């Protein structure tokens, strides 16, 4: 078994071969260990597995060889001490937060959040006595003002869904550490390739592997990465005994997804840059938000903390919902769907779908308007996507 550094020179090798182990059959492709349990050669060996003296496997809710291979490859990619796979991205976010707080604790979070993360912070955790304050993530003084004596965790997404607003990871990490809190980052939009939160000071990183890591719309999955001490002492007992375990089959799909992650993300970034230029300045467009486009309000920060602009664009159309829906309905290649990070380009109207349950004042504060659509750029030919965007713009222009 060889490991490969996650420096740019070796990244593609790591994605294909990192942490690779083979069974005694010498298979080329990683094996799928589709088993719930494991057997022992003797009663004494069973005891040794349970005491931990024998490091072998016990039960797939605890550990599984295919899952472990996925975890180790992703861990190497992220440069983390430890990684735990989960059944979905939300299981990862919930586990990361729940393993970090207890009743009476307080969380400060950037307001621009994935819908279900918003529900965890504002509805579920409060039932167990954990409160949260949501702030404008771009405003460092707002993070500081929200700190309470019981603040234990800072939580954020950057770039955020669906507005592609950014938060300065290093500045917020320094602030969190100055009051003894830790910073948890949901790094889905940037992918493990374009932004390295741990290097910028974050303590825990979560992924919805459903998105770019699978990247082909096949399965759900997630992961939590962080320091060995946190993962062993707090996260692992939480996961083992509450059971949001990733299926070995899905772990295998995600491993296969990692093999092509950099090819896919690079291609989508190339296309996203072209589409951002096409949309920018069009008469039907009030604003296009793409982190590495010079018009992004936080362009300098985007250049500093992301190596590329990512695979998502937010487009604010003139003419509100009528224009947004006309744009979407005119598309012939891009599908209307709330998923993202897929090989297929997908578009969504957050106001009426993913963010519909959010209180209107929170939506307004986040910049989710009637005219806003979110585009996830896939792998189709750039010419076909440009033609599709042109069709959408022509339809939207009638309402601008
Ligand atoms: C999709 C997503 C999640 C949730 O992931 P699931 O795999 O759907 O549970 C969390 N955060 C962000 C930013 C996402 O895009």
UniProtKB/TrEMBL annotation:
Q: How does it assemble?
A: Homotetramer.
Name of the gene encoding the protein in the UniProt record: metZ
Give the organism the record lists. Elstera cyanobacteriorum
Q: Which UniProt keywords apply?
A: Amino-acid biosynthesis, Methionine biosynthesis, Pyridoxal phosphate, Transferase
What InterPro entries has UniProt attached to this entry?
Cys/Met-Metab_PyrdxlP-dep_enz, O-succ-hSer_sulfhydrylase, PyrdxlP-dep_Trfase, PyrdxlP-dep_Trfase_major, PyrdxlP-dep_Trfase_small
Q: Pathway it belongs to?
A: Amino-acid biosynthesis; L-methionine biosynthesis via de novo pathway; L-homocysteine from O-succinyl-L-homoserine: step 1/1
Please report the name of this protein according to its UniProt entry.
Answer: O-succinylhomoserine sulfhydrylase
Query: Which reaction does this chain catalyze?
Result: O-succinyl-L-homoserine + hydrogen sulfide = L-homocysteine + succinate
Annotated Gene Ontology cellular components are:
cytoplasm
Q: What role does it play?
A: Catalyzes the formation of L-homocysteine from O-succinyl-L-homoserine (OSHS) and hydrogen sulfide.
In its UniProt record, which GO terms are filed under biological process?
A: 'de novo' L-methionine biosynthetic process; homocysteine biosynthetic process; transsulfuration
> PANTHER family, from UniProt?
CYSTATHIONINE GAMMA-LYASE, TRANS-SULFURATION ENZYME FAMILY MEMBER
